[in-house]
Amino acid sequence: MFKLFGHLKKDKPxxxxxxxxxxxxxxxxxxxxxxxxPHPEDRVAYLVSQGLAEPEIIKVLKDEGYSFQEIDSxxxxxxxxxxxxxxxVSAYGFGEGAQPEDLAPVFRPNPQEVVRExxxxxxxxxxxxxxxxxxxxxxxxxLSGVLDELDKTEKRFAEVNEKLRQVNxxxxxxxxxxxxxxxxxxxxxxxxxxxxxxIEPRIASLEKAFKDIVPNLVESIREMRETVASLRRREAPMxxxxxxxxxxxxxxxxxxxxxxxxxx
Length: 264
Description:
The chain is an all-alpha fold. The protein is 75% helix and 0% strand.
């Protein structure tokens, strides 16, 4: 019936449209319309008996000038009467030459074909549903893989950022250490310079003191040696003149050596 209504809505003529005589002349299944048209149910029953399908019946009735309501009512009543095995109720009686016993059973689809069509429709729907499930599964798998890769990438970026942060901290620590080392070295250099400045006057004063003390010390040592030598000469027996001369010359040489060693 839905297919029927779809065809009727698509090709619905205006009410009271005159029949197309040219089309009826070329169509053997559409007899010449009488001035008083037969009831739509009678025409539907007759056309069904001629073996016409629904679209052909609708087209013939439209060409004969039947309205949408008349065509729909006629087909509906004929189908109901054929299903319940009751003759259709007609206000005008049967059409010309159409008796109830001459009418063939109304056209109905083969149950096996209906079952096959329903099975094919169910199979197609199941196939579509299965394909949708497969597509959803593939999308979920691909999406889960992409999400896993994104998680791994984010973790790697986090690790790299952490390493960069540690490297920056080490660089800053080394820079601070270098600054501290430079400062401590500068302080040490300054301290050494100050010590040198403090030591230089002391060294100068020591040099001056040594310059003043050393000559006096050398002279005192020389006098002490002379005194000791003279005392030895007095205590020892006097040899001959040559021995005394040698001793005196040796004593003088010894004094010169001692004097030179002190200054050296």
